[in-house]
Amino acid sequence: MEYTTKVVTIDDYDAIYELWISTEQSKRALNPVDDTREGIERYLKRNPNTCFAAVKDGKIIGVILTGHDGRRAIIHHMCVHKDYRRMGIAAHLVSLAENALKEEGIQKIFGLVFKDNDPANAFWEGQGYSLRTNLNYRNKSLNDEIPAGE
Q1: Domains identified in the chain and CATH numbers
Q2: pLDDT by 10s per residue, the chain, length 150
Q3: Is 116 helix (H, G, I), strand (E, B) or coil?
Q4: How far apart, in whole angstroms, are the C-alpha atoms of residue 35 and residue 54?
Q5: Nearest Cα residue to 64 out of 102, 103, 19
Q6: Which strands, in side-by-side order, build the sheet including 52-56?
């Protein structure tokens, strides 16, 4: 299947948000502050070269948002439209993000995946991302609009 890839810009926000809400797993990872146009614009200003979209016939069919703090990177959102899964798009987006991070001197990446998202967990395992069982992920919301999580 033919598609192109591009660096994500804020002009892609509406198409990306539409993609995110099209799948239950992606939709449940969103929060009402950080994933707004303003929140994503802040993120892209900080990470202008590490977020990518797959585009087919002018429509975004996959996206990865990856950023870093100068030491380590995190994959914040990864989503491929359900009609285009298992075609290598996600792996290609991961590769683009990893290469962009390497160019910025980043040596380690982590990502968060819901425990009950078996297909995503299998995908990340297949990409060489190991499961860390010796850490606890801790979360604190500084905004009442953002849920603390389960």
Answers
A1: 4-126 (3.40.630.30)
A2: 899 999 999 999 999 999 999 988 888 788 788 889 999 999 999 999 999 999 999 999 999 999 999 999 999 999 999 999 999 999 999 999 999 999 999 999 999 888 899 999 899 999 999 998 888 877 777 777 776 766
A3: coil
A4: 19
A5: 19
A6: 4-7, 52-56, 59-68, 73-80, 109-111
Distance CA 32, CA 146 (A): 6
Q: Cβ of 52: how many Cβ atoms within 10 Å?
A: 23
Please report the DSSP string for 16-47 in residue order. Answer: HHHHHHTSHHHHHH--TTTTSHHHHHHHHHH-
In angstroms, rounded to a whole number, what is the distance separating the alpha carbons of residues 66 and 51?
Answer: 5
The secondary structure element, H or E, covering residue 122 is: helix 118-126
The CA R_g of the chain, rounded to the nearest whole Å, is: 15
The number of angstroms, rounded, from the C-alpha of 68 to the middle of its chain's C-alpha atoms is: 12
Amino acid identity for residue 97 in this structure: A
